[in-house]
Amino acid sequence: MTDPRIAELRDRVRSFVREEVIPAERELAGGAEPTDELRRRLQQAAASAGLLSPTAPKRWGGLGLSVSEQAVVLMEAGYSLLGPLALNCAAPDEGNMHLMHKVASPEQQERYLAPLARAEVRSCFAMTEPSPGAGSDPSMLRTSAHWDGEAWVINGRKWFITGADGAAWAICMARTPEHGDSPAGATMFLVDADNPGMQVVRHIDSLDRGFVGGHCEVQFTDCRVGPEAVLGEVGKGFAYAQVRLAPARLTHCMRWLGLAQRAQDMALDRVTEREAFGSRLADLGMAQQMLADNEIDLAASRALIAQAAWLLDRGERASAESSIAKAFVAEAVGRIVDRAVQLHGALGVSHDLPLALFLREVRPFRIYDGASEVHRMSIAQRAVRRRTAARSPQ
Amino acid sequence: MTDPRIAELRDRVRSFVREEVIPAERELAGGAEPTDELRRRLQQAAASAGLLSPTAPKRWGGLGLSVSEQAVVLMEAGYSLLGPLALNCAAPDEGNMHLMHKVASPEQQERYLAPLARAEVRSCFAMTEPSPGAGSDPSMLRTSAHWDGEAWVINGRKWFITGADGAAWAICMARTPEHGDSPAGATMFLVDADNPGMQVVRHIDSLDRGFVGGHCEVQFTDCRVGPEAVLGEVGKGFAYAQVRLAPARLTHCMRWLGLAQRAQDMALDRVTEREAFGSRLADLGMAQQMLADNEIDLAASRALIAQAAWLLDRGERASAESSIAKAFVAEAVGRIVDRAVQLHGALGVSHDLPLALFLREVRPFRIYDGASEVHRMSIAQRAVRRRTAARSPQ
Amino acid sequence: MTDPRIAELRDRVRSFVREEVIPAERELAGGAEPTDELRRRLQQAAASAGLLSPTAPKRWGGLGLSVSEQAVVLMEAGYSLLGPLALNCAAPDEGNMHLMHKVASPEQQERYLAPLARAEVRSCFAMTEPSPGAGSDPSMLRTSAHWDGEAWVINGRKWFITGADGAAWAICMARTPEHGDSPAGATMFLVDADNPGMQVVRHIDSLDRGFVGGHCEVQFTDCRVGPEAVLGEVGKGFAYAQVRLAPARLTHCMRWLGLAQRAQDMALDRVTEREAFGSRLADLGMAQQMLADNEIDLAASRALIAQAAWLLDRGERASAESSIAKAFVAEAVGRIVDRAVQLHGALGVSHDLPLALFLREVRPFRIYDGASEVHRMSIAQRAVRRRTAARSPQ
Amino acid sequence: MTDPRIAELRDRVRSFVREEVIPAERELAGGAEPTDELRRRLQQAAASAGLLSPTAPKRWGGLGLSVSEQAVVLMEAGYSLLGPLALNCAAPDEGNMHLMHKVASPEQQERYLAPLARAEVRSCFAMTEPSPGAGSDPSMLRTSAHWDGEAWVINGRKWFITGADGAAWAICMARTPEHGDSPAGATMFLVDADNPGMQVVRHIDSLDRGFVGGHCEVQFTDCRVGPEAVLGEVGKGFAYAQVRLAPARLTHCMRWLGLAQRAQDMALDRVTEREAFGSRLADLGMAQQMLADNEIDLAASRALIAQAAWLLDRGERASAESSIAKAFVAEAVGRIVDRAVQLHGALGVSHDLPLALFLREVRPFRIYDGASEVHRMSIAQRAVRRRTAARSPQ
């Protein structure tokens, strides 16, 4: 990345993360979720540093970075578990901002997107359902909404809704029947947190703890919203999910890769300090192998992200490329952190260092936003279609 | 295993674990370490069922099983995180009983081993040290003891001392100078918990939480013990460590493999219940691949344990075989649990199921009792020596 | 294996292979298939040494070893690519002897099995078909036979029929319609090589070259055989295939594992002789890792074979266990030889050593006798059934 | 790659390879090395199509592509085993052209580079030595040269010298003592094929067969050359080796990746044609997993090559990046071809398809041009140095 403006921004984010954010990680000790108080403190610091909302359009107060530029900045932010939160570019808000920017009406943008981009509120995205509902296979969506003549009435249960507790509003995905000119399908609804029909049932106690507002189970019971709550158009929910998913997957990769780089830096420090069997760890072949495999995984991850970002910036959908990047990076990040733990020995599995926490945080990434197996299925199917088409006579 | 006596014992352990022990796992919710109160309750139930201390000699009230028989029983016990504790065959007590049985004087056995085999007390084994002391490389031992004319005086710091908090006594490994006829080397000392020179500094907050008494940091400061505290002979500490290690590694493998079998059973249940993409998970190729890889890993682990156990029962040292089993099983168990998590999707990383806890518990096994890399180094060195010897002219 | 009789036999096979067989490997230089002349020479030497036909029943002149004993002897034989041929326990004859012993009528045994066990002739097993016929999925069998009132008439094409060129007879698997009391299904036929309806079309030029008589494509065109040519009973072909497969898979594993041990021994020799970066290769961590991984793969392979052999000797079908062993060992052997090649650098890919040839020979083992994926599918399905049954109320 | 000029060139190369080059692969049947007659025929066709010498500077008649542009064209060329040869961008000539362009004197360029770029002659690069000489560790160089007052006299043995038989000249790397102002070190010499002191001893029979002129063993015996034969300066041989290596590694990656793409295309064709277990292979999960892993490996390889190429085009050395790309791509290409073979079943290991040949061709790539382990060692060492520097106070 040679643009001096971005290089300068990257350096500022790097300093900010090391000086302001990493010290705050101690507040996650013992597996505590970050609090809204911590969030506000960090976001105010980021705002003072001019680093808030790098992915949001300038019009809404963000830095308006291209996807390629986001890659640079979000990796730096991800160097701390709290960095993306501090910069207001963490999931799910970052993805919601993108979706609202692309799909919402001007009124919806003013009401929902603007305060989100200013980090005044948080939001959530209510799509995933517990078994036997929509998990890996979105077509199994069971939450439904129907128009009763006066309002849309939503019923169903969602879970692993990140940040639901404390969010000002939710985007809720529900199955909808044919409605006017709109075909049967799925529709996204904007639901205010104070809607009595939407209730956060519990925080799901999960392996990862790094998200403010937790991963929640959310119940929709006769939840009534007006026609203005429809995000975009009725029946287009699955299409909008795709609008959100490809870039959201990629920003996930950027953030997690930053954390993997941190783990590798810790490992590189460790091997120059620790000795065993008469050598520095850094000079032992098996340690070198782990360090080199980490470097390779980091380089391949960065390169795959860069390629997909470049395509997205050119206006392509990059579905295949973002799927490939997600599948690879999610697994690579897991390997990198795991090797860093191994290189630290017993210290690596203690919480004296944050590595053990990183290990917990990154594991779900192979499941969230499309399990590795689902991505592989779609990657294979796309490859088969592409090849079949290439062989067909025109 | 065709011995009907062992098959019957296995079935009794199986029932006991499912009926009495697994329900108690809920007391570990939220990452709580098992308490001594829970331990006593479970061990009384095991005693009532005639299942206490399967690895301890009959003379001391145990079941006196051979290593091959232990393999059967400890895998069943390991099906629950609390099973080995319930049966009084968990680390470190199980290894300490073995060591005391082999090395301790009759007086030491009466005083220390007998109450341990009856599960009246717990013990600990204080060998590992924080950097730059003895971790993977035991020759880096820094804790030292010297004879001041009246007593042995031990100084040094230990960490990851499992079960230290609440243990009635510790075996402490310390570097000792030449002493009488004994060469310089290492010596093991029995230290009572009320010795003012031994102090539990803290519980190390670790990825795994399943051990009663935690993983502790322990300080020895001018810790004075009499000559009767020397376990076995002065200067033979490293040799005794080998006596303890090979079988202790293997019982570790047995226990963890039981947990891996539990994870696989949960995965097998899941895939028959959950559908996606129009099929039962059980009928999807990628799920089958994970299930099959688990079966292969389980079978290979069982087979390696069986082979090493058979050799130990024949009186061989089986150092190479137990090292190979440890390296393979520790990694296989991690893979098995990881695949079971993946097959459960988001549910797998939630603590609604114990799988996420299992994932945390098994990760350190690749580090504890010899990191995989250290075992590989010694496996390779042994293979080179064996081959070189085979080629030499006689 | 402690039986001194078997230990002595193992030592004799070991000496025979090193002294008589390995020197003959030079006749495979340049990728030449072993000739029948070479086969006869080696088999006469083996007969003189009392080592011929270790798997054949004593009644037919073999050594009558149990499966567990075969494991010991066939691994030693497999130490050379030509060892199994020399001892007359190579595929496909070894599997055919087993099948004929279990299923053939006394007359068929006298006529076909007896000379095979005496190594007077070779045989072949004609089951696999080119696409779209029976490959991984035997239910796709297209070769058919019908009774025309006087004879069975076989039509179809087979390929990868090992040893077909020069075989005295073939077992041909064909789809048969309902016939008398026999249901529609598959039937095995004994076809003499001089039957004009059976023709060896070509040797398939394959990655592996180590089988006498090659891998052939064989055409059956109105191939007429009498009722006495039916092996066992009409319609039971698929069941007999299972009778042959489980032990044949296991003997495959034994033989290939012997070759893997040879590759590892070569690697162990190499690392003590070659230096780089100021050390013996044997002292470099990455080399140690490869050597250790080979030791682990060898030990796990041996242990899985031993377990399945033990079950077969007890009269169990051991389908799951032999499938697991086949899947694991086929992949392990590939990894072991690959690592041995890598440890030899450029020398390893030259044919100055036989390693490059080994690499070619072992690759197809992941496909022959059930591709790894097919085994994994059936391993998973069995595990699901077993678990479902275990949960069912009785 | 959006430059329409390059897209057009890529399409022309693609057509040329499919129409003119792939049909010629049949001449490699049975493991035959390509002949110089075949080479000339293909290169004339490429010259007619305006596609000769894409990496050579325009001044010498090449296409003068940047490294990033080479990536596009060489991957297309590599789609056939004979493509790089046809376009005169195969190893070792392509690397030699680069080195001569960077280091040779104008006279040397006129005499050696010009005819090479016009594909009138072939060349070779004589660096690697048999044990105990320079293999993975170049510092073990044993071939030596000394100035006897009238000429340089070279003595030593080289092996795996690709293309030596039939080459018009060689670049020979030899250890040289202090000479004038030049320190002791290594020096590169240009040796004409008719020099009586240089002799091709044999073609080494190797796993891969795709290089014209083979991999040869070459003996230098009192090989006398004049001062004008010194390439660049005396004593700078190791530095020049680096000049050649980084880009040569990368062009290796490009070519092999083209072959991997071909293997994947064959696999994609196969899975839509072949059925098993009642489904197209393309719809079976385990097949999808292999196809998807191939897509991921291809994408990551392409991305790593693109990143390193971009750096080289900016004038950076990109040593770390080209090392990472080499280590990853060499292994990825092996995995891709291996999976393609597996998806073809028995057909995949037959030479009815070129896949079995591809498998043989790509295996040595993990050894040639720096074994994976050597690259990992240097990748780790660089990472440690970079991190140590980043932490140092300025």
Automatic annotation (TrEMBL), chains A, B, C, D:
Transmembrane segments: none annotated. One of its GO terms (molecular function) is acyl-CoA dehydrogenase activity. Residues 235-383 form the Acyl-CoA dehydrogenase/oxidase C-terminal domain. Residues 8-120 form the Acyl-CoA dehydrogenase/oxidase N-terminal domain. GO terms for cellular component: cytoplasm. Homodimer. PANTHER family: ACYL-COA DEHYDROGENASE FAMILY MEMBER 11, MEDIUM-CHAIN SPECIFIC ACYL-COA DEHYDROGENASE, MITOCHONDRIAL-RELATED. This is Acyl-CoA dehydrogenase. It comes from Thermobifida cellulosilytica TB100.
